[in-house]
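Sharing a chain and its predicted structure for anyone who wants a worked example. Both blocks are below, sequence first, C-alpha cells second.
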Amino acid sequence: MPSLREYILAINDGSDVIIPGRESKLWGIIKMHLDLIPQDYVPIPVSGQEGCIRVAIFRVHRWQYSKSGKRTMVVDTLFRNHLTEAGQRAVADYLMHSFKHTFRSYMTGALSNNPKLSIHDAIYNFCELYRISMDTITYEMLRKDWFRFRKRIPDGFVVPIENKDF
C-alpha cells in the first residue's frame, strides 16, 4: 500500500529501511518468520525496489523452542535471514496497525483539542503532517475508518503504543 510506505518514510526520517528494536514486537514477528534462503530466490538490489520497505536484521544466534516442531532449534540470522511470505504479511499487518493507531490517535487529539476543527480538515492535516499524498489514499477511506472507530469506541480513548518500536 503506497500510503503505508509514505507513512513509514515520514516517521523514519525519509529512510525506507526500518531498524527494529531488539526487544520490540516487530523484531519478534520477524524472528518468528525467518527461514533459509530458498533455492529460487533472486536477490533484491541493495538500493531496494520501488514501493518496498526494507527491514534490517540483527545478527542473532539463539536457541529457540519451536512449538510446531516440538523441538529446540538454533535461530541464527547468518543462515535464517529470509522473511517468508507469511512473515511479510505479518510485518505489513503490524505496520498497518501502527498506521491506523497513529491516525486514530491524531484524530482523537486534534478534534478533542480544537472543537472548531472539522473532520475534513483534520484528515487533510494528518496527511500533510505525515506526507501522505491523496493520490495514494482517499479522503473517503480515512473518513470511513474514523467513523467506524468512533462507532466502536465512542469516547475516543486510544491505548498508546510505542511508534518507535521499529
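Comments welcome. Residues 81 and 97 are 24 Å apart (CA to CA).
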